[in-house]
Structures are given as C-alpha cells and as structure tokens.
Write a structure and sequence with these properties.
Structural class: alpha+beta
Shape: elongated
Strand content: 35-45%
Order of helices and strands: HEHEEHEEEE
Number of strands: 7
Distance between the termini: 76 Å
Length: 144
C-alpha cells in the first residue's frame, strides 16, 4: 500500500510540473490589430505605443493599467495572445472613454510587473491553460 501511495505522489508531482509552463514571448502589435476580432477596437480612442509619435498632449488624466487573461486551450499561443491583447486594448479604450480622453499614449507591456517598452511588439505569457497580457498607458486628450 505504501508503495502505491508513493508511486501516486510521484506521478502527481511529475504531471503538475509537466503542465506548469509559463512561456513569455513577444508578438507583433500590427498582426494582433489585424487578427480576428480586431474590428471591435474603436477608432475614437487613439492607441499610441511607447516610442510612437503622437500629437501634442492637451490634458493628461493619469496612468491606467489592465491585466487580461484568456483560455488558451485548443489555440496556438500566438492566437490566444492576439485575442487577449485585443481584450486588453479594448479595456484601455473603455477606461479612456470613461475618463474623457481621446487617446491612450505611452502604452507598455507590464507582464508580471515587468515593464517592456516597444512600438512594435507586446509581451504575453502562456501557460498550459491560460494566456495573459498586461498593459499600462496614460489617458490624455491629444490636440486635433
């Protein structure tokens, strides 16, 4: 009986480490903004990633952040990351609308509180079941 319990415990420990993955990768922003579901991203709130040019700031309303997760089962990491990136971007836009801004500027990836600045790529973490994207940016009114 002891032998069976030890074997079961060993199998459980081995399986949990086999499924415990956290692959952190970068993916192109442009591809995500052209992926399935990207038509939901509004044009009324500009999205300006860190390092991109933008019009002069008329008013700053402060920094905002979002941390979104999605089920990655049955999808490639890239497809799951594109999907959750769109969710994060939509959340930034919604918050900017609520605050009265017309743009979110200086958007950076903030996966696991590790700020990453890129005008072309975002950071996404994928595990055995979930994928996640965290973004930070500043809500502003840009000069038109």
């Amino acid at each position: 009986m002891k032998r069976h319990l030890m074997l079961a415990a060993l199998c459980a420990a081995t399986m949990s480490t086999a499924f415990a993955r956290n692959d952190v990768r970068t993916y192109p922003i442009d591809a995500a903004l052209k992926s399935e579901g990207a038509d939901k991203v509004g044009s009324d709130i500009a999205l300006v990633f860190d390092g991109q040019q933008h019009a002069a700031v008329v008013k700053s309303m402060g920094e905002i952040a979002t941390n979104k997760k999605t089920n990655g089962v049955g999808r490639s990491d890239e497809a799951a990351c594109q999907h959750v990136f769109l969710s994060a971007v939509l959340a930034l836009q919604e918050r900017a609308r609520e605050m009265g801004g017309n743009a979110v500027i200086n958007i950076k990836s903030n996966y696991k509180n590790n700020l990453t600045s890129s005008a072309t790529d975002f950071t996404c973490g994928s595990g055995a079941i979930m994928s996640g994207v965290a973004l930070k940016g500043e809500v502003v009114t840009l000069k038109k």
